Structures are given as C-alpha cells and as structure tokens.
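User: I'm new to structure prediction. If I give you an amino acid sequence, what do you actually give back? Let's try with this one:
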Amino acid sequence: MNIPLAKLDWGTEGFSYAFQQAHLPGVIISGILLALSVISWSVMFSKLSMTAKVARQNYKFVHGFRQASNAMEPHLRKFSVAGAPLFLVYRAACRELSMQLIGTGEVDDTTHARMANAGALTPPQMETVRMAMDRTIGEMVLFLERRMTFLATAVSGAPFLGLLGTVWGVMEVFSRVASSGASASIKLMAPGVAAALVTTVVALLVAIPAMFGYNFLINKIRTLILEMHNFAAELGAMLERQFVDYYALARQGNAAPAASQPHYEQPAASTGFNAQPATGPVANESFPPPSQAREEGGPPINPIAQQARRPRRRPV
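Assistant: Good question. You get back a string of structure tokens that encode the predicted 3D arrangement of the chain. For your 316 residues, that looks like this:
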C-alpha cells in the first residue's frame, strides 16, 4: 500500500491552529523553550565534534607513546600531539619529574645527560609528579564537562516550563468560561485548551533530544576521563620503576651512623615499687599484687580502680 507523502497528515495543521489561539504567557514560554532548544542543539553538535577529535588525538598519542623504549623518551624527543588530554597529562608528569631531578622542565641538548647523572628520586618527589598528573586531569575534566550544564538544564527545566504554560492556559480557559456566564461546551473550551497544550508539546520537543544527547555525551566524557586516570596510573608506575630506587634508599637508611641516632639517658634511680638500677630494661618485668605493694610501702592503690574491682550488688 503506497500512500503519497503529500496526503499524509503531519499534524502541523492542529499545531498551527493551537499556536494562533495561544495567549501571551504561552507565547513567551514557547519563545524561551525555542531559545533553550537552539542552545542545547549547538552544545550537542560542538561536544560531539570535540569528543571525536579528542578520541582521535588520544589514539595518535598512545600509538606514538607505545613505540618508545622508555617513559621519558617521547618527552626528550619533543614528541607532542596537540589537543590530546593524555599528552597533557604526560607532559605535566615529565616536566615535574625533570624539575625534581635537574631543576628545569625545559628540554635541550643536555637534558638527557643531566638526567642520567641526576640520581634517583625520593618517594616524596615521586608524589609531586603524581600530584602534577592529578592536577592536569582535574583541569581536563573541567574542560570536557564545560557547557554540559546547558543540556542538563534543558532536560530538567523544559518540561516544567511546558507544564507552567499548560496550567496557565487551562486556568485562562476556565476563568473566561466563568466570567462569560455561558454554559461550558467543547466548542467553547477547545481553542483555549489546545492553545494551552502547545507549550507542553514544545517543551517535550526540547527535552527529549537534549536527554538523549546528554546521556550519550556524558558516557563519552566519562570514558575519556577513565582513560586519563588509567594512563596516569600506568605512567606513574613506569616512572617509579625507572627513577625511584627503593633498594638504594633502604641501604642509605640502614647505613646511618650511630651518632645520628637520638640518645636517651636512663634515670639515675627509679622510684616506686619493684625499683631496678639504671642498667637497662628488665626482661619479663613482673609487679607484685596490690596488697603486697601496699605492705611494702608502695604507692597507694587507685581508689577508682579498687572500687571497680568490688562486686556490684544486684538491684532488689
């Protein structure tokens, strides 16, 4: 069964008739909804283009990074991919690591030799490298999620604006019927009710595409953020294996001279019960029972502790 498209009822006739019967508040609300729709569509198109470009640039950077022999080789060769969040995270880590080792984050002809003779990083210095990556990830999250609030506003706010216009229009219809004194009929109320429903239709046309676009984009952005966190964890482990020598640090800690250790003098004489000469700690030191300590002239028993030892009487 072939039906010509010209004979199909697209529903525009009813919408145009209802819009012609709309009251002023309904027209204002519809205009606000149309402006919100234009903004949401522009945000969706720009974000789709941006996320696709970022994904391509990330893939290009990872492809070049995997071909390097060590983690610092791309940085020393000045390898860069503009617009790739992973590259920005990598650059921040390498610059901070170079700053900790040789005092500068810039790369020149002597950087490789200076870093080879710089020695190992300490764990606190490695922590600053991780903090630099985390700071860059936070900045990129703000960049990726920028203007997403417009889509969220269109999804949540447009239905309420449409409901406001519909309720206002229905209120106008009933107030006109009540003030005219005529009996209510479908023919009398239909134009006003149809005009009131226009704002609901416009609101749904704004909110439904914005909802699908928001869900799709937020999943893409979360994927990019997860890739940055995973890459930062992998890069941090690679830099730690290459530049932090925990075995050497442990040997340096164990080789500390005895004079550097704090010296605590023993007291000349101890007081109280079971006194011992100041010749060092006593192994398996045992204390006499409280009764014996009192008989031998020891310190008095704590009255609170003594009272706690007494059996409590049960209430009658």
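You can read the tokens as a compact description of the fold. Here is one thing that stands out. The chain has a mean pLDDT of 77.
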